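Researcher: Re-running this chain for the archive, since the previous output was lost when a drive failed. Same request as before.
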Amino acid sequence: MTNLKLFPLLAALIMIACSKAESADPLEIAPSNLNIQTTIAIDSSGNVTFVASANNASSYEFDFGDGVSRASADGKTSYKYNKTGIYNVTVLAINEAGFTSKTVKVDVFVTSAVFWSDEFNYTGSPDGNKWTYDIGTGSNGWGNAEQQYYTDRTDNAFVSNGTLKITAKAENFGGKSYTSARMLTKGKFVMQYGKVEVRAKLPVGGGTWPAIWMLGNNIDQVGWPACGEIDIMEHLGNQVNKIYHTLHYPGHSGGNATGMNHMISNATSEFHVYTMEWTAASIQFSVDGGLKYTFPNNSSIPYNHNFFLILNVAMGGNFGGTIAPGFSSSAMEIDYVRVYK
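Model: Regenerated structure tokens:
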């Protein structure tokens, strides 16, 4: 029995076929003898080539088994899977008289390769070929009533002993009572789809607000939230060990954003691995390899273009809350940032 939820166009195709049944040319026959050939790349890249053929077919629809579907006029298409797995691929062969369908299994093995990273195996300022900085207070539109002044000083961002330290400090600077750093890959590195993995230990203290996140590379053209925002990890010093995974986009931004939060142990005293896996079908968030939240992606929301990475520690503000009176300094310590494709 055909599952009518497989393709958005399937129900419409059935209605068209039925409405034309009385007037159709008696010689017109629905597609039959559907055959599907699959070729899986031997390089473990996840690439699979499909060739479908059927008698009397005028077009084809492919459901790749991971939430993504695609039309093909000639029955030929290729698709890249991002994860190892066995996928049920369903193909429709279609003409005005009706359709036929067939499902085949493809067993795909995918080897993820690191194609961008910073291992922080050096000493001094963060690598200027990979990172730049937002400077100032956010008065130009990217702040959230926070209390820090972002600098590019080594006082606030420094690499030593194999880790990056982004340090928030209590000090008068630029009209603010705190300093910190906001590092980003804008203009240096962008990505569309893939996996981001960051091993980090979070700062201590009420009012600290560390974040590992991403913004759409078109933010200067379309603004926020139209560009899209992916918050891989946020943590509040006033809510110790509660980890937030959040997405901001039109209709779902600020206090109306989409996401979830959960508790972990020792967020500020031990390193944890925060991971985001992003495809055309979903955005998944994990901590230490455990899946925490899956967001369904689709073509109507701004998660299908290039994004850049951001690392920062904010102080106070709309989300960070009250800063502890005795706060002096604390750092988010990052062992590595890795992007897999």
